[in-house]
Structures are given as C-alpha cells and as structure tokens.
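in:
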C-alpha cells in the first residue's frame, strides 16, 4: 500500500511538471488573426477580458489536440528509418536484460507497418477522447503507463514494444471514469469507448490473446489507465471536501 501511494505521488509530480512545461502562453501567440476575429465575432456580447480568455482556451486546446499526432510522427519516423535504413532490425523494445530506458522508447517502436497502422488508428481516437477531458489526464496516463510498465521492462522475460500499452491505458481510463463520476457526459464517453473497443479487452486474458501478442504489457497499460481514473477521482473528491470546509 505504501509503495502504491508512493508511485501515485511520483506520477502526479512528474505529470505536473510536464504540464507546467507544456502550458506556455507562447503557444497561443501563434494563432492566426483570422481565427481570432471569428472568435471575437461570436463573443461580441462578452467583455474584452472574457474574449481574451476564450481565445487562450481555444488555441491551447487546439495545440493539445495536436499532441497525439506528434507522438505518431515520432513512431512513424522510427519505423520508416527502421525499414528503409536498417531493413527492419532497428527495434527498441523493453524487456529483461535491456536498459531500463527502453520502457520510454518501446511505445514508439513497432514490428512493422501493419503493427504501427493498427495501433495508430485506435491510439489517435482514444487520445482525442481523453483530451476532451483535459491535458492533465492525458499526460497522467502516459506517465502512469511508464511507471507501471517498469517492472515488466526489468523482469519479464518476453520483450515487447508498440503503442498498445498506452492504448490500453487510455482504454482503461475511459471505461472506468464514467462509472466513477456517474455524470451523463462521462457515462456516455465510457459507453462509447466500450462500444467501439470493448472486444479488444480479450487481449488482456492469457491464453485468449492473439499469438505473438504481449498480453502482460497490455494488462500493465490497462491497469495504469484504471489507476489514473481512480487517482483523478480521488483528487476530485479531495478538492470537494476542501471546498466544504
């Protein structure tokens, strides 16, 4: 229990640092004046300070929604170099006997274009669904997946790589958050996620997952997603209790 709480604190601290680094006003300054004029026109009834806040919120959200695309660009760049330059031999998996930092490179390494394409579509969809709830939750899931996967990277004999661990982290978060919050929007998001990707949960069961698929890395990612949803709800409950007092 003590170790779990310590991991939660570490994950929360690192995700906070990443958010602090990324959330910079300079991102908003790159917005085109034409789009700003559209926002201003649609909010003529608001005072100038509110219009500036709307501009800031809109362009910040737009930039964060580009983040999953940037992640995919990194994965596709690695795969292109791997296939063109190294003939498919430049893989960066995690596993026993490999450097610990491979847990960071593993999501961006794949066994071929088929593997990458199948992960890219679901990764982009689930990423955008999570980002509708905010960048903090999205970064928290990524950091949680890395930390939960660390024992696998150091101890598990089978090597694995690919974005699927992160995909299952996003999936676990989205499936649980609706049940925890019990709000219409959250329940709809969880129901939509289950309807789209519920059948993929079979890959979490040893013996039923497809051949040559690392079910343990999927399970670690899924557990990290559940942990992220539980932690978020715990923070929300703590914030509500402070407001009461």
């Amino acid at each position: 229990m003590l170790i779990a709480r310590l991991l939660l604190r570490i994950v929360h601290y690192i995700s906070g640092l990443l958010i602090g680094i990324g959330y910079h006003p300079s991102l908003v300054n790159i917005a085109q004046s034409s789009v700003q004029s559209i926002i201003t026109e649609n909010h003529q009834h608001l005072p100038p300070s509110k219009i500036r806040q709307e501009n800031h919120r809109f362009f910040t959200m737009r930039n964060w929604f580009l983040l999953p695309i940037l992640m995919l660009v990194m994965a596709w760049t690695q795969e292109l170099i791997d296939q063109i330059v190294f003939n498919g031999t430049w893989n960066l998996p995690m596993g026993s006997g490999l450097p610990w930092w491979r847990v960071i490179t593993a999501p961006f390494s794949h066994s071929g274009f088929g593997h990458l394409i199948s992960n890219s579509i679901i990764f982009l969809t689930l990423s955008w669904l999570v980002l509708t709830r905010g960048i903090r939750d999205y970064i928290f899931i990524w950091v949680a997946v890395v930390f939960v996967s660390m024992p696998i990277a150091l101890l598990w004999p089978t090597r694995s790589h690919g974005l699927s661990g992160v995909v299952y982290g996003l999936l676990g978060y989205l499936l649980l958050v609706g049940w925890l919050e019990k709000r219409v929007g959250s329940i709809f998001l969880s129901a939509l996620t289950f309807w789209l990707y519920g059948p993929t949960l079979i890959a979490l069961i040893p013996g039923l997952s497809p051949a040559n698929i690392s079910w343990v890395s999927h399970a670690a990612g899924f557990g990290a997603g559940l942990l992220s949803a539980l932690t978020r709800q715990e923070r929300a409950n703590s914030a509500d209790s402070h407001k009461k007092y």
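note: The chain has ten helices and no strands.
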